[in-house]
Specification:
Helix content is 41%, strand content 18%. It is of the alpha/beta class and 400 residues long. The protein starts with a strand and ends in a 21-residue tail after the last strand. Bound molecules: pyridoxal-5'-phosphate. Pyridoxal-5'-phosphate binds next to helix 3, helix 7 and helix 11.
């Protein structure tokens, strides 16, 4: 656990980060898998285990199985990220690609486990898995007994349920426990209100670790009894949190791992008073998604400026235009110089240039300098489209 840097807007908060992204396999998931497998009787253990997963649970079970020297079969949907499939195989698991989504993969895995009489390792709705994930909570309170609040992401709820048991036992009744979900998977708040499992439409979020259609029955019971609060953030807020973690804390967090920081930056309720611990639950971010997160973060922080202008079609004009940016310390990222652009006269060219700037203030200063010097410049809005889920190879018609 480390003390967090002073994130914008949270300067006065005593914030700590529990770095599960640094675990072997890149997430906390090996805790529950190890505990579940450690409690299997020897004769069951020898037959090996089966699990279904979209990614992190797969790697956790594969790791735990290898540690115990038993055969592991993981069923992943045909749409699973190739990187996560490769990572699971590299841990020695037999990976079967079956079904077009997690639910179908799970059905197949359950049938396989029954047919071969092998133990199925659930992803969250299981007391041993929950207890294993709960060691995150034990460690937090051991490291910081004065913890006033713990905030973590919720998919099926196994992680936060385990943490809640530990935190209530060691941290007392006043400790706040906050579960964060992406707006596209808002299943915790209605379930806490209704007091029963609520299933939402197939989730669309780039935080794939939290893209579970419902909080499990046992996790929900525990979360309810522990008086856990449900907070919601949108994908853009999660992406900005990933960006800030990377830039300011040097921490690579996937969407599920940065959702708690996104919650603190955009709280659904009053911010806790006293030391807060955010669980950075995983760091397995697809590089193509990381690319979009960086782009979005730069746009959200006002660090990119796109300008459009019309120049006279004469040698040296572009040079003079760019010299202004250079003098003001703005670096060129992209440039388009279009002689055939619509709306220009026969002696003009349209130039669109994207510049790296220090922030909104620097951008304003640069615009002032251009306009004061008589250049007709306009800004072009930058659209940061994050998409709603990691890129997949499936055709649009098979998407759920
Ligand atoms: C990185 C990460 N964080 C959080 C979660 C959510 O855990 P749970 O399903 O136990 O709520 C997951 C689940 O896959 C995950 O991979």
């Amino acid at each position: 656990m480390i003390r967090a840097p002073r994130f914008p807007g949270l300067e006065s908060v005593e914030l700590y980060l529990k770095l599960e992204n640094l675990q072997w396999t890149g997430s906390f998931k090996l805790r529950g898998a190890l505990n579940c497998i450690a409690h299997l009787p020897d004769d069951r253990l020898r037959r090996g285990v089966v699990a279904a997963s979209a990614g992190n649970h797969a790697q956790g079970v594969a790791y735990a199985g290898r540690a115990k020297g038993i055969p592991v079969t993981i069923v992943m949907a045909r749409t699973a990220s190739p990187l996560k499939v490769a990572a699971t195989r590299s841990l020695g698991a037999n990976v079967i690609l079956e079904g077009s989504n997690y639910d179908e993969a799970k059905e197949f895995a359950l049938a396989l486990a029954r047919r071969e009489d092998r133990a199925f390792i659930p992803a969250f709705d299981d007391p041993m898995v929950i207890a294993g994930q709960g060691t995150v909570g034990l460690e937090i309170l051991e490291a910081l007994p004065t913890t006033a609040a713990i905030i973590g992401g919720v998919g099926g709820g196994g992680l936060l349920a385990g943490v809640a048991v530990a935190a209530r036992a060691l941290g007392g009744p006043k400790l706040r426990i906050i579960g964060v979900q992406p707006a596209g998977v808002d299943s915790l708040r209605p379930a806490l209100e209704a007091g029963r499992v609520v299933t939402v439409a197939p989730p669309r979020t780039f935080a794939d670790g939290l893209a579970t259609r419902e909080v499990g029955r046992l996790p929900l019971e525990i979360l309810k009894a522990a008086r856990v609060e449900g907070w919601v953030v949108d994908d853009m807020e999660i992406a900005r949190a990933s960006f800030l973690l990377l830039e300011q804390a040097k921490i690579l967090a996937e969407g599920a791992g940065s959702a708690p920081l996104a919650g603190l930056l955009n709280p659904s309720g009053p911010l806790p008073e006293g030391p807060i611990v955010a669980i950075i639950s995983g760091g397995n971010l697809d590089p193509f998604v990381l690319d979009r997160v960086l782009w979005y973060g730069l746009v959200a922080e006002g660090r990119l400026l796109r300008l459009r202008t019309l120049l006279r079609d004469r040698p040296g004009q572009l040079n003079s235009f760019l010299e202004v940016a250079a003098r003001e310390g703005a670096n060129v990222r992209q440039i388009h110089h279009e002689r055939e652009a619509p709306g220009r006269g026969p002696t003009e060219v349209r130039v669109e240039v994207e510049l790296e700037v220090e922030g909104p203030e620097h951008a304003r200063r640069l615009l002032d300098v251009y306009r004061t010097a008589g250049w007709g410049v306009e800004t072009v809005p930058l659209v940061a489209d994050l998409g709603t889920e990691p890129p997949r190879a499936e055709p649009p018609s098979s998407r759920k």
